[in-house]
Amino acid sequence: MQLIVFLLRSSWGMLAIAIGTGFVSGISSASLIAIISLAVSQGSAESLRLAAWGFAGIAFIALITSIISQMTLIRLAQQAIFQLRLTLSQQILGSELTHLEGLGIPRLMATLTDDVQAVTDAVRLVPFLCIDLATVAGCLAYINWLSFRVFVLVCLLTVVALGSCRWLLRRGKRLLAKAREQQDILFANFRTVTEGTKELKLHYWRRQAFLQEDLQPTAGRFRRYSVDGLTLFAVTSSWGKLIFFFAVGFVLFALPQFMQLPAETLSGYVLTFTYLMLPMERLVNQLPILSRASIALEKIQSLGLSLANSAEQVSVPTDIHYTWQALSLQGVTHRYRGESEDSHFTLGPVDLKLQPGELVFIVGGNGSGKSTLAKLIAGLYIPEAGEIYLDGKRITSENREWYRQHFSAIFADFYLFDRFLGIDTPNLEAQAQAYLQQLRLDHKVRLEAGKLSTTALSQGQRKRLALLTAYLEDRPIYLFDEWAADQDPVFKELFYTELLGKLRDRGKAILVISHDDHYFHLADRIIKLDYGQVEYDKPQG
Ligand SMILES: Nc1ncnc2c1ncn2[C@@H]1O[C@H](COP(=O)(O)OP(=O)(O)OP(=O)(O)O)[C@@H](O)[C@H]1O
């Protein structure tokens, strides 16, 4: 049902066409059985000729409507998946950073990959399910036409079958949902495998401990829940088949004892039941896939809801203040909530002012709150208290997107794009080439049709490429989070003594998070943090 609602949301018109034609196709297939059954029982040449024409006509209708239904549903299903992927990605990008950090990468990845795949697998089945359901309905209608009493009997048996399967199905679904819970943990383990490869390879005992204490138990729990859940589905399927065989046997052997049935009616039943067997079996066999999809849709929905609750307003930013006057933070705070009260970390309240052409160093010990402050200043974190003003304009949810466009930042965990996405300056390639030379990367990296020839470089070189992108962005305020930490002494010197100065001369405000104390004298101002509080904010020299 959830799957149908999911498809309905994409296009109810297409779904109506698909279900309508699927139904006609199923009914036509069932009618073919009725015609075969009639043709077998009525031997006259005239009726056979009529039956042959009827058979050909209905077979044609069944074929055409089946093709139309499947084609429409394939398009609809793929359209729905396409929209789901885009919507999820947009929702993630449109959600508050703190919320995303709270959810964690494994949860997001599990939904973006596994849950979407589970829905895709089920959606692929929908065209066949529709036709199978319609065939079953058509066959039931034919049985009803043959005898209402037998129809009632079949319906009763179906109610018994469904009723007895319900418990098994519910329990099976619950187990599959538990298996799905393990998947988030599995993704976290897989991240350890891919991102911690070096550390795990270098330390045999750590690797064994990780495999035995983390990965193996999680994968084991996933296996156990999946095996138990799928077993219940298999039992359900076999139980369903048994009830069905019972129905066929009952009609064939027991029914003639209670009521007078002509031989051709009996053969009509047997033919119909035998024909019903295939779609019924397919419907039952696909239950685990449908169940998984329903669990995945619940997960997607809950992620979507939680993302929607922390969604930020997205607006097309216009009129960036390249000639701005002042940025100020007034009583701004941010708090990370740990598991216990002691593990909370609060930054602020912070008051500070920033002007164009200022080179400000943010310093302090590890964990003192420098990166947190940088994210607050750049508008990535929304202050829990206090206000940010740019040229007297208070930053609110309405203009935060606009405000962020004033910053170019390289964080310690930066992401390097291999193309200059969204940078639309004239002479982009020539400028980029010049910066490549200035950053001493022209011998390593070439520009090929607006793309960097490689990003597989050393960490220091990758940071230089990130700096190149930041230069090309040409934003009014620059933010470097321990950018120089990976640079060799020569380039580090160049960065502090030349590159920062050149940016300042261009009127940029530059915030530099640094532990390189022998370059602190180059700053115009130093802000020192200690345990989330500003210890001092004073001009240098
Ligand atoms: N995503 C997070 N969730 C919870 N707590 C966090 C998170 N990021 C940082 N913290 C906590 O906030 C505090 C400040 O972290 P922050 O990264 O701002 O420090 P920093 O001064 O930049 O440190 P470093 O010099 O080591 O980079 C730390 O004590 C840390 O425990």
UniProtKB/TrEMBL annotation:
Domain ABC transporter: 327-541
InterPro entries in alphabetical order: AAA+_ATPase, ABC1_TM_dom, ABC1_TM_sf, ABC_transporter-like_ATP-bd, ABC_transporter-like_CS, Cyc_pep_transpt_SyrD/YojI, P-loop_NTPase, Type_1_exporter
Pfam assignment, any one: ABC_tran
Chain ranges passing through the membrane: 12-40, 52-76, 125-145, 151-169, 230-254
Compartment list: Cell membrane
Membrane topology (UniProt): Multi-pass membrane protein
Identification of the protein by name: Cyclic peptide export ABC transporter
Organism: Geitlerinema calcuttense NRMC-F 0142
